[in-house]
Amino acid sequence: MPPPRDLSPEKAEQILAGAMREFLENGFAGARIDKIVAAAKVSKATVYRHFPDKVALFNVLIQRMAAKKELFELQNMQSFDEEPAIVLRRHAEKMLDNVATDPQILTFLRIIIGESGRFPLLAQAFIRDVEKPALDGLTRYLTLHPKLKIADPEVTARAFIGTLIHFVLFTYVLHGKDIMPIERDRLLDELLALVIKPK
Amino acid sequence: MPPPRDLSPEKAEQILAGAMREFLENGFAGARIDKIVAAAKVSKATVYRHFPDKVALFNVLIQRMAAKKELFELQNMQSFDEEPAIVLRRHAEKMLDNVATDPQILTFLRIIIGESGRFPLLAQAFIRDVEKPALDGLTRYLTLHPKLKIADPEVTARAFIGTLIHFVLFTYVLHGKDIMPIERDRLLDELLALVIKPK
DNA sequence: GTCTATATCAGGATAGAC
DNA sequence: GTCTATCCTGATATAGAC
Question: DSSP code of B180?
Fold first, then answer.
């Protein structure tokens, strides 16, 4: 549902921009409207003229972030010319680079998972807009590439992406880097061997 | 070193029991001391006599929950008599059963991940007490079992457990069941084939 | 040592001026 | 339509009785 028409969309954007950092850093319950107001350089009344309440603001913001599909960047695997090992590794590396260099993605993952109990629809928006496209794209690639004979491409895609996401959660989100570090290249080498190598 | 205050450990347990549900359901910022007090059937002053503040109470509770290592139950893989495929499948099934039947584990995962930005030490306690033992146990099993010749057991363990945890997060925590369902048996079949890979 | 009662203050949300 | 100023609920934390 788009914001009401008789209000300036410019201010709405301003509010959403200010709300982003606050919600990402502090979660829903921890976010303070005052901070959002200060960051957006708008008065509190203006916020409540554009959004009925805190919940609605949160919903709009998170759904919009989930709709930015560049998060995992694992689609667009159209070309079948190159070796699958090369293509898969490049995509995995790009995804990990994205995440490792942009702390906002980490906090976004924290929010989506942390609030998935109270905001199930937001969690499902994330599944629909981020995870599903990545899984579908990879499944399609594994199915169609002439050099590959994967028994169950859908499950293989889940294993591939699941291992990567778990690596991200473990290493960066949960700060496992200091406790059980692992070389990224080593993980990718063996993961590719598991997925691609025919039995 | 502060002198030990007089307080009954019995009341402390009572408070922690009451705090569990509230913190799990609402996260740190969303949890209300009043609710904890009501659930524990204790007065508010008693809570503050046993714990300096809300943060300390949260820390004790979550660290204690993480120390319950039965969460993932993937260690104790000592016997090398049976077929690896049988053993691995049984352990994976038990882990998934645990999680699927106990909603508290799902909310615990939400909390640990959701609060990992503000409470990094709790996240690391989870890594140390839950994830690491499971990974180490599986790595050891994959390394020592005479019938297996795994190139990189450590990464293979990460792929196995990572795929399972991602499945749990995707399906149950993020409510992906309704959007992209997948048969548990099918996932396990192919995952085992990928990991064990008979030649 | 635990309770009742309360201090203190911040939060979300609104009324009214312009 | 936006701002200033304010309401009021409800939160954490404490003081003082027993």
Answer: S
Which residue is associated with the tokens 């016997």? B79
The yes-or-no verdict on residue B161 having pLDDT over 90 is yes
* Per-residue pLDDT tens over the stretch B125-138: 999 999 999 999 99
Please say whether the dihedral angle defined by the alpha carbons of residues B110, B90, B127 and A103, taken in this order, is positive or negative. negative
The token pair at A137 is 């794209």
Q: What 8-state DSSP symbol labels residue A180?
A: S
Tokens of A35: 């901070």
Contacts of A190 in chain B (CB under 8 A): 151-152, 155-156, 159
Among A170, A171, A175, A144, smallest CA distance to A157 is for: A144
Does residue A41 approach strand C to less than 7 Å at its CB?
no
Residue nearest to nucleotide C12 (CA to C1'): A33
**Tokens 């450990």 — which residue?**
B9
Residue of B nearest to A180 (CA): B132
Whether B108 has its CB under 8 Å from any CB of chain A: the answer is no
Beta strands in chain B (DSSP E): none
Q: CA A109 to CA A154: how far, in whole Å? A: 23
Q: B184-196 vs B84-101: helix axis angle to the nearest 10?
A: 140
Give the integer Cα–Cα distance in Å for B196 and B85: 7
Q: Is A87 on the interface with B (CB under 8 A)?
A: no
CA distance A73 to A78: 13
Integer Cα distance of A62 and A19 in angstroms: 10
- Cα–Cα distance between B110 and A53 in angstroms, integer? 24
pTM, two decimals, is: 0.94
Mutate which of A74, A139, A170, A186 to test chain B, going by most B C-beta atoms within 10 A? A170
Q: H/E element holding B60?
A: helix B54-67
Q: What pLDDT digit, counting tens, does each position of A95-138 carry?
A: 999 998 899 999 999 999 999 999 999 999 999 999 999 999 99
Which of B51, B64, B53 is closest to B20 using CA atoms? B64
Rounded to an integer, what distance in angstroms lies between the CA atom of residue B72 and that of residue B84?
A: 19
Q: Retrieve residue B114's tokens.
A: 């959701």
Q: How many CA atoms lie within 13 A of A85 on its CB side?
A: 10
CA distance A115 to A106: 14
Q: A37 beta carbon < 7 A from strand C?
A: no
